[in-house]
Amino acid sequence: MNAEILRIGDDLVAMHAVLTDTGVTLVDAGLPGDRKALESALRAAGRELSDIRGVVLTHGDSDHIGVAEWLRAEHGVPVHVHEADAARARGEAKSHAPGGAWRLGPVLRFLGSGVRRGALRTVRIGEVRTFRDGDVLDLPGAPEIIGLPGHSPGSVAIRIPSADALFLGDAVTTRNVLTGVAAVGLGPFSDAPAQTPQSLERLHGLPETRLFPGHGPEFSGTADQLIAALATD
Fold it and tell me: Mean pLDDT in the chain?
């Protein structure tokens, strides 16, 4: 059974809906102001909020949990996150501070887009369901969890073989939100950036050719090609 990927948002902050015959899995949850965008995108695809069976987070940062609590509290949608990021998603642990190079224009665009989409109104998640590295979740698309600690302790890649898709969270970016550079690189916000390249080695040999970073456009190519591009950056 093939699954379809529906992108919601933009290259600054996006979430993705995995559409299958048995329902929808939402990968990450954008920003708090993305409710209408999510409803409109689903409706255009012939789906409704009631088709969402679960939200799966690549990690627990505020720009990835935006509509998750609304879906959980008002629509009964369970929210899944790695056990090491559960406290962060619930607002009980601090996120990292930005680091590395930056340019004023890209930073202002990132902040401005965030403000327009409700980034200042973040609602932490009241209750989460936790998973571990290697789990395959009982959700549409059968999301497979691959631990990628570095950006955060509970950062993960989410593999959807039926959609030829691999979601990378903020381990990797294809357009740096702080510099505007459109190239494969490590995510600019990170707890332990030196750990991420080692974690990415776990993706070697995966066959998927549609790779989705948390920020930036889709990478067309395998994980091996992405890692090679990162090494030459």
Answer: 92
**What is the Cα–Cα distance from 152 to 65, expressed in whole angstroms?**
14
How far is 113 from 109, CA to CA, in rounded Å?
A: 6
Report yes or no: 21 and 53 within 8 Å, Cβ to Cβ: no
Integer Cα distance of 38 and 29 in angstroms: 9
Q: What percent of the chain has pLDDT over 90?
A: 74
pLDDT at 113: 80
* Average pLDDT over every residue of 109-114: 76
Categorise residue 81: left if φ over 0, alpha if ψ from -120 to 50, beta otherwise: beta
Q: How many Å apart are CA 121 and CA 119, to the nearest integer?
A: 5
Task: Give buried/exposed letters for 134-168 (b at 16+ CB in 10 A, else e).
Answer: ebebebbbbbbbbbbbbbbbbbbbbbbbebebbbb
Cα 157 from Cα 76, distance rounded (Å): 25
Q: What is the pTM of this model?
A: 0.93
